[in-house]
């Protein structure tokens, strides 16, 4: 029977059969010299095959076991992204160009009362002059009856009083625009919260009016709610 040249010819049988050590001591007592003579096939025709197969099976089992876990958690990033997604915006509210506090309140109101229609938000000087002129056409004392006393209010009302011949909306708006153009930013802010984006108007309605007005009064950050401006019905909220 052939024998490996690396195996000592006098190696004892030991636990693994004859010819399994380079030395004369029993197998296991001289680890640096022990060698398995696989050419003699003492433990099978291909002793490494079972080990390789076992390793591959273990790897395969681990992969199979992790697949369901990966599938189970694979949707986590998508779910997190969906949770972090910004809520849908309302183009009508965005167009009002409100301050943060007023905008949040507008969305709060729209959520509670989807039927509400916003008629005004932030205004520049031209828009403020036009809005006042529209009301002055119906009531020449509208400015002093609507706004709190201030330098800006008195200047606007004085122009109306001094220009009684100006009766159309466009004529009055042009005159008031000139007045507003001569005021400081601080004076303008004291006239109307619309100029800073801290106010919006809502279309008055008859249906569900009490509930809508209650919802407006309960908005976060609201400081004033008017159902009338002067003698005219206007639902006006300030923040």
Describe the structure.
The protein has a domain at 91-238. The chain contains 10 helices and 4 strands; from the N terminus they run ααααβαααααβαββ. The chain starts with 47 loop residues before the first helix and ends with a strand. The protein has a 4-stranded antiparallel sheet with strand order 1-2-4-3. It is α+β, with helices and mostly antiparallel strands.
What distinguishing features does this structure have?
single chain; 239 residues; alpha+beta; 4-stranded antiparallel β-sheet; 10 helices; 4 strands; 8% strand; elongated
Q: Could you tell me the strand content as a percent range?
A: 5-15%
Radius of gyration: 44 Å
Name the strands of the widest sheet in spatial order. 1-2-4-3
Pairing-aware structural class of the strands and helices?
alpha+beta
Principal-axis shape: elongated
Task: Tell me about the largest β-sheet.
Answer: 4 strands, antiparallel
Termini Cα gap: 103 Å
Number of helices: 10
Query: Uncertain spans, ≥5 residues at pLDDT below 50?
Result: 37-55, 66-72
What's the layout of helices and strands?
Blueprint: H1 48-73, H2 76-84, H3 91-94, H4 100-112, E1 118-120, H5 125-136, H6 142-146, H7 151-162, H8 169-181, H9 185-191, E2 199-202, H10 209-217, E3 224-229, E4 232-238
Antiparallel strand pairs: 1-2, 2-4, 3-4
Helix pairs in contact: 5-8, 7-8
């Amino acid at each position: 029977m052939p024998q490996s040249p690396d195996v000592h010819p006098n190696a004892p049988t030991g636990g693994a059969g004859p010819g399994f050590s380079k030395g004369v001591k029993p197998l296991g007592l001289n680890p640096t010299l022990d060698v398995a003579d696989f050419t003699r096939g003492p433990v099978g025709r291909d002793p490494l095959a079972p080990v390789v197969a076992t390793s591959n099976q273990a790897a395969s089992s681990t992969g199979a076991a992790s697949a369901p876990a990966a599938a189970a958690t694979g949707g986590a990033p998508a779910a997190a992204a969906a949770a972090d997604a910004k809520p849908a915006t309302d183009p009508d509210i965005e167009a009002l160009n409100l301050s943060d506090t007023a905008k949040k309140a507008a969305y709060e109101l729209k959520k509670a009362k989807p039927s509400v229609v916003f008629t005004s938000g932030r205004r520049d000087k031209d828009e403020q002059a036009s809005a006042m002129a529209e009301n002055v056409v119906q009531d020449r004392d509208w400015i002093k009856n609507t706004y709190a006393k201030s330098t800006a209010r008195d200047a606007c009302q004085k122009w109306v009083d001094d220009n009684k011949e100006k009766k159309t909306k466009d004529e009055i708006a042009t005159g008031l625009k000139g007045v507003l153009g001569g005021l400081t930013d601080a004076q303008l802010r004291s006239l109307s919260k619309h100029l800073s984006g801290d106010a919006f108007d809502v279309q008055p309605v008859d249906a569900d009016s009490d509930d809508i007005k209650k919802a407006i009064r309960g908005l976060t950050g609201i400081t004033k709610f008017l159902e009338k401006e002067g003698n005219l019905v206007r639902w006006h909220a300030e923040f």
